[in-house]
Amino acid sequence: MSEMAQLRITEIFYSLQGESSTVGFPTVFVRLTGCPLRCGYCDTAYAFKGGVWQDLQAVMDQVAAYQPQYVTVTGGEPLAQESCLELLTALCDEGYKVSLETSGAIAISPVDPRVMNVMDIKTPGSGEVEKNLWSNIAQLKSTDQVKFVICDESDYRWSCEQLDKWNLSKRCEVLFSPALGLQDATQLAEWILRDRLQVRFQIQLHKYLWGDVSGK
């Protein structure tokens, strides 16, 4: 672990995982500052700027204080900081079950293979569909997950097309999530059942428990 490595941190907190295959598990979240995307439904715009520069060891010490089993590195877009890669490896070396929440706009190939990538594919409704780095799909492991945030029926149809085009359900687990306040969750669930999709429907558990607040 490099003594010189530093990361710009928005917050480090302990909560329940609200999404992905580890939903419901107590998890430490390390939220890095900064993101090159501006999705219309973004719920963490407070992480676009600010933050505090911290040494990698200081971040590791804060994580260890919670004695977690699961750690999620998120943002913003965590891979926008080069030192994120070193953080991910250091967390894996400590024996944590580590996941990375990433936009899909930056290459995941350098990420430690022990990390579970939870990678967005940006829908047209996000306003950032052109930022998708399609070469990332070939880098996905069977233990990774791909997430589509669905804003409307047009997004849903587009996402179904990507499922088929890239054979995503054969590569890894696929998540369909309704954009809060834009797409009715029940309606999305009905579409998935109607079309017999091989995807995991998910809602953001933490939003239903605590609302749209930071640190949860």
UniProtKB/TrEMBL annotation:
Record domain Radical SAM core: where: 22-216
GO MF term list: 4 iron, 4 sulfur cluster binding; carbon-nitrogen lyase activity; magnesium ion binding; S-adenosyl-L-methionine binding
4Fe-4S listed as a keyword: yes
PROSITE patterns named among the record's database cross-references: RADICAL_SAM (PS51918)
Residues annotated for substrate binding in this entry: 16-18, 31, 74
Residues bound to [4Fe-4S] cluster: 35, 39, 42
Protein name (record): 7-carboxy-7-deazaguanine synthase
Gene: queE
Subunit structure, as described in the record: Homodimer.
Cofactor descriptive note: Binds 1 [4Fe-4S] cluster. The cluster is coordinated with 3 cysteines and an exchangeable S-adenosyl-L-methionine. Binds 1 S-adenosyl-L-methionine per subunit.
CDD domains documented for this protein: Radical_SAM
Top class in the EC scheme: lyase
Involved pathway(s): Purine metabolism; 7-cyano-7-deazaguanine biosynthesis
Reaction(s) catalysed by this chain's protein: 6-carboxy-5,6,7,8-tetrahydropterin + H(+) = 7-carboxy-7-carbaguanine + NH4(+)
Enzyme Commission (EC) number: 4.3.99.3
Residues the entry annotates as binding Mg(2+): 44
PANTHER family: 7-CARBOXY-7-DEAZAGUANINE SYNTHASE
Cofactor(s) this protein cannot do without: [4Fe-4S] cluster; Mg(2+); S-adenosyl-L-methionine
Function recorded in the entry: Catalyzes the complex heterocyclic radical-mediated conversion of 6-carboxy-5,6,7,8-tetrahydropterin (CPH4) to 7-carboxy-7-deazaguanine (CDG), a step common to the biosynthetic pathways of all 7-deazapurine-containing compounds.
Protein keywords: 4Fe-4S, Iron, Iron-sulfur, Lyase, Magnesium, Metal-binding, Queuosine biosynthesis, S-adenosyl-L-methionine
Entry's family note: Belongs to the radical SAM superfamily. 7-carboxy-7-deazaguanine synthase family.
Native organism taxonomy: Bacteria, Pseudomonadati, Pseudomonadota, Gammaproteobacteria, Chromatiales
